[in-house]
From TrEMBL:
It comes from the Bacteria. SMART domains: EAL (SM00052), GGDEF (SM00267). Residues 33-166 form the GGDEF domain. Residues 175-428 form the EAL domain. NCBIfam families: GGDEF. This is Bifunctional diguanylate cyclase/phosphodiesterase. Gene3D superfamilies: 3.30.70.270, EAL domain (3.20.20.450). PROSITE patterns: EAL (PS50883), GGDEF (PS50887). Pfam families: EAL, GGDEF.
Length: 435
């Protein structure tokens, strides 16, 4: 498979698409011609996966790719730029009407039902269109305009839209810049892990750590995870970054001087990976490379990971648990908590969301929810971690409620590898002196 092709559909991948868009927008400006950018988002694709399965969804995406390939002229380019988002670059269109004709042709192709073998569905899509030079004269802003048009069409219940008004190029999207620069950040050594300790109650012995991704950009400095993680998820880079984090965390943990055995190292797995059939293989590969007897791998997933297709997700997580890996449900209580799946849930741990923990002393509802989560988890044989513990009073409130593990700035902030290794050594020495 070429490095410019999307593995699933064979269309141009996002990286190739971005390069093509820049080149052809530049040519359109130079030659004084028009270019249309069409961004296509498949409606209700998550529901389609939930109803028919991920294999069916993959076949549907390949079908859409074939439809786009069918309608594209020789000089056009079709790309897959997100999980269920596609794009067409149409150089040399005559005017806005010409672009509209292309969109209508696309909708006619979508009207033909797709037969995936175990189901027949009629798929729909929402489309955003932007023209160069009418709506933007730079590639970055043109893509931004097309995607804004798509979101506006979806919000107003329309099938497609041009930008509501001409934009200007005075400020390029900062998110676009970050997206471009994020690709390759791991290879350039800009991505690194920090570790926040997890301590056992009641004696506060360190029994594990959560690994968290950080990005130190060569010119911007530290980029917030709140900025780059959503970009990575949207652009399909999150899988590659998660594999890197998984292998790095296990490698680091194997070199620590551990104050407690086994010592858990937790890695966050995003929702879109939990339902992928190759996740157990990725975990097994990392374990084969880096696992040591004294280190316990923990995968932290959110409740959202289990919602769309619980049966499928449970099967995948059960396979991972069979390898000796523990599963932790992160941010519990903020998502789609459902008692119905508790009797079968393939998990070992619940993490109470920090919003409940931080509110325990001032809000009776938060205190009650925290108590209920701890009791519920214990009834189903699960351990409970409270994150976001920042003061002694909250710690004591968790201790009297029989919480199992605590994590927060009261004990230590997330530390870079060298600092965390020294913190662990100091903790182990203090424990030995206490004995």
């Amino acid at each position: 498979m070429s490095s410019i092709e999307d593995d699933l559909t064979g269309l141009h991948n996002r990286r190739s698409f971005l390069a093509l868009l820049r080149r052809h927008v530049g040519l359109a400006n130079e030659r004084k011609t028009n270019l249309a950018l069409v961004v296509v988002d498949v409606d209700g694709f998550a529901r389609l996966n939930a109803a028919h399965g991920y294999d069916f969804g993959d076949r549907a995406l390949r079908h859409i790719a074939q439809q786009l390939h069918t309608m594209a002229r020789t000089q056009d380019y079709a790309a897959r730029i997100g999980d269920n988002r596609f794009a067409l670059i149409l150089p040399g269109v005559m005017n806005a009407g010409h672009a509209e004709l292309a969109v209508q042709k696309l909708f006619r192709l979508f009207e033909v039902p797709f037969d995936g073998g175990n189901g027949r569905v009629r798929m729909t899509a929402t489309v955003g269109v932007a023209l160069c030079p009418l709506h933007a004269t730079q590639a970055e802003f043109l893509l931004l305009q097309a995607e804004k048009s798509l979101e506006l069409a979806r919000a107003t219940g329309q099938r497609w839209l041009f930008p509501p008004e001409s934009g200007d190029d005075l400020g390029l999207s900062e998110l676009w810049d970050l997206e471009i620069e994020l690709d390759g950040a791991v290879q350039r050594g800009e991505m690194f892990l920090v570790y926040q300790p997890k301590l056992r109650l009641p004696d506060l012995v360190p029994i594990g750590a959560e690994a968290l991704m950080r990005w130190r950009h060569r010119s911007r400095g530290l980029v917030s995870p709140g900025q780059f993680i959503p970009i990575a998820e949207q652009t399909g880079q999150i899988k590659r970054m998660t594999i890197w984090a998984l292998n790095s965390a296990l490698r680091h943990a194997g070199e620590w001087k551990l104050p407690h055995v086994p010592f858990g190292v937790a890695v966050n797995v995003p929702p879109e990976l939990v339902g992928q059939d190759d996740l157990p293989d990725l975990v097994e590969n990392a374990l084969n490379l880096w696992a040591t007897p004294d280190v316990q791998l923990v995968l932290e997933i959110t409740e959202r990971s289990l919602v769309m297709d619980p049966r499928h997700s449970f099967r995948i997580l059960s396979r991972i648990r069979d390898m000796g890996v523990k599963i932790s449900i992160d941010d519990f209580g903020t998502g789609y908590s459902c008692l119905a799946y508790f009797k079968d849930i393939p998990a070992d741990e619940l993490k109470i969301d920090r919003s409940f923990v931080s509110g325990m002393l001032i809000d009776a509802t938060c205190a009650d929810i925290t108590s209920l989560i701890i009791d519920l988890a214990h009834r189903f044989g699960l351990h409970v971690v409270a994150e976001g513990v920042e003061d002694e009073e909250t710690l004591e409130a968790l201790r009297v409620r029989n919480c199992d593990v605590v994590q927060g700035h009261l004990f230590a902030k997330a530390m870079e590898l060298g600092d965390f290794s020294r913190w662990l050594t100091d903790s182990g020495d203090a424990l030995r002196r206490a004995v």
